[in-house]
Design goal:
This protein is an all-alpha fold. The chain has helices at 24-33, 35-42, 48-70, 77-106, 113-144, 148-174, 183-202, 221-230. The chain has one domain. α4 packs antiparallel against α5 and α5 packs antiparallel against α6. The longest helix is centred in the middle third of the chain and has 32 residues, at 113-144. It starts with 23 loop residues before the first helix and ends with a helix.
């Protein structure tokens, strides 16, 4: 009996392996070039330093982008906008962490809470890094237009793009744990987006000026947008 001539004698293809990420700068490069390395690193234990590093990257990048946002109105917004944007993004992530872990469990993922938190910090860091990439474009428009509504729409577009890439990283990372379904995480993504939109509305104004640091009136983000469109400044 002869061997099957179509049978391959090559060894089986092994699952791709990654070297653990060590340090903040390598983490930034990895999350842009090899996001799988970040996800694989978080699958190991004792990655608290990497989580703190990514949180620091997210806070720093949001602060710099907030400074660019503040250049539109100047004055107090040069320090208020960076604080609000950085705090708003980080607080939104912490608010949504419990629901992310619950949806991850419901999807059949064995990821631990610390690992899920690590993936969430990767989402925040990647989104913030992308905002830094958009910062020069935002500055050009801030220096050449007086439309608050137009600038708000531009920053919203940049935020949508940055958040989309961040969510793609998160969903891809959780898939490394081979969950039964990713539908739960996709539902969480909608919740996360809504929370961020409402958080930024609660921390308004980010672009225009105000007599107070925080607004006195409570508003739903859709209602706030409607008011801005009806009464553009």
């Amino acid at each position: 009996m002869t061997d099957d001539p179509t049978a391959s004698t090559a060894p089986p293809i092994e699952e791709q392996t990654y070297q653990p990420v060590q340090g903040v700068i390598p983490a930034v490069e990895a999350i842009l070039r090899e996001p799988g390395r970040i996800a694989a690193t978080f699958r190991q234990r004792g990655q608290g330093r990497l989580i703190l590093g990514l949180l620091a990257v997210a806070a720093f990048c949001c602060t710099i982008y907030g400074l660019v946002v503040g250049t539109f109105s100047g004055g107090a917004q040069l320090w208020a906008a960076p604080i609000k944007i950085a705090a708003g993004m980080l607080i939104s992530g912490l608010i949504c962490l419990p629901s992310l872990y619950i949806f991850s469990c419901l999807s059949g993922s064995p990821a631990r809470l610390a690992q899920v938190f690590g993936f969430l910090t990767g989402l925040l860091a990647l989104s913030a890094i992308l905002l830094i990439g958009f910062a020069p474009v935002a500055w050009v428009f801030s220096a050449s237009t007086q439309s608050v509504t137009g600038m708000g729409a531009l920053h919203l577009i940049f935020w949508i793009v940055a958040t989309w890439f961040g969510l793609r990283f998160l969903i891809g990372s959780l898939k490394q744990f081979a969950p039964k379904s990713s539908e739960g995480v996709k539902v969480w993504a909608i919740i996360f987006i809504l929370v961020q939109l409402q958080m930024m509305t609660a921390l308004r104004p980010l672009i225009s000026t105000s007599d107070t640091f925080l607004p006195r009136e409570k508003k739903f983000f859709a209602g706030h947008w409607a008011d801005c469109i009806e009464k553009p400044k």
